[in-house]
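Re: the request from the purification team.
They wanted to know what the chain is likely to look like in 3D before they choose a buffer screen. I agreed to run a prediction and write the result into the notebook, where they can find it.
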Amino acid sequence: MKEFPKNFLWGGATAANQFEGAWDQDGKGPSIMDMMTGGSNTRARKITPVLEENSYYPNHEGIDFYHNYKKDIALFAEMGFKVFRLSIAWSRIYPNGDDEKLNEKGLQFYDDVFDELKKYNIEPIVTISHYEIPFALTKKYGGWKNRKLIDFYYRYAQTLFKRYKDKVKYWLTFNEINCGMVPFGAYMSLGMILSGEENTEAVCMQALHHQFVASAKAVKLGHQINPEFKIGCMLAYMDMQPLTCDPSDVLMAQKADQIANMICGDVQVRGAYPAFTKRYFAEKNINIAMQPDDEQILKEGCVDYYTFSYYMSNCVSAHPSKEQTSGNLIGGLKNPYLKASDWGWQIDPIGLRWTLNHIYDRYRIPIMVVENGLGAVDNVESDGTINDDYRIDYLKQHIEQMREAVEDSVDLMGYTSWAPIDLVSASTGEMKKRYGFIYVDKHDDGTGTLERSRKKSFYWYKKVIESNGEVL
């Protein structure tokens, strides 16, 4: 069995809006996620254009990493992290997104975080925009459907690249950029509140095109500021499998893969829209308004590496009268061969190996799995221990399949589990949907001491990193 590379990047991944807290401190403005109430597996989160007095907004405090970053980073270092993926809150740097002046206190906070990581020889991987554009850009400009956001993002990225050019090597331009391909992502990914009257696919595709241009311009700029930068894309890989061997199911799965995954991957890695979009755009009445130099910008701004999230797989079928299941961003049909999580996400480790091979065969650039984990209800025993063997089993099986992919000759550069510490769920706003190796005493009603404690998986992951993936 082939081993993981000696320089393999083990670590964990987070998002500022889900764990940072301090949503209105030290000059920070509200982000789009600060305007979302809590929810549950059965009750959707609500977007409120104005904060409601009697509603609970879980992202406002998160788990208060803002005031506990030294303690949390020390725990990451105890596990042996090589890298830590985090995002920067845009509204902590430019509170309204279009401000003339930046917020120095926001920049200094991330300076302090990067310095603390360096103390433990942990390399940061920074997502520039992770579901947290300033809410003012939604309110004033309508989000990413407005081309003006390209310039606002470019200035923001330039600020980060110049400020942290000697502290950050690895960058990601947008988190799960293909989230904008599904209605659920119109707000979280594109910062748009849809009226329901427009051609949703066309509006989202136009907004996504603006993000493609912004990403490409940022990649080119980053390489100019520091040629040593490695700048990547990040997709939510939606593994859509045919439910049966009916050729109609196989064709449907191929089309679903093309639309959900390949459009964004091709534009950011290859620098152009794939050929199949011609028919897709015609069928959906999508006419992207491009500036004369947009195509050249995309060609010149191709990413250095490809990263993605992988949690589950779903099935599709031309015969839809089947049992439905949930998933990350989108659901699908139930696969009778798979078990599911507490939230109905199907557990498919072999699907990760298939996905890694599928991506690498198409793009032939380094790949990194930057989100993978099990959201579950954790019980604290009377002695304070948390025996999350179910999480260990989930991660073990997926890491085994990553190793198989390395044996398949996939150029896999690293793995950051989601999330190393409990945080607010993006989709449901819950705390009880826990992912971390570190338990945080925080609950769905906002109560809790915020005390951190190590789960059983904490010690397991430490051994995984120490052995470079050999001891699982």
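For the purification team: The chain has 14 helices and 14 strands.
Please add any questions underneath this entry.
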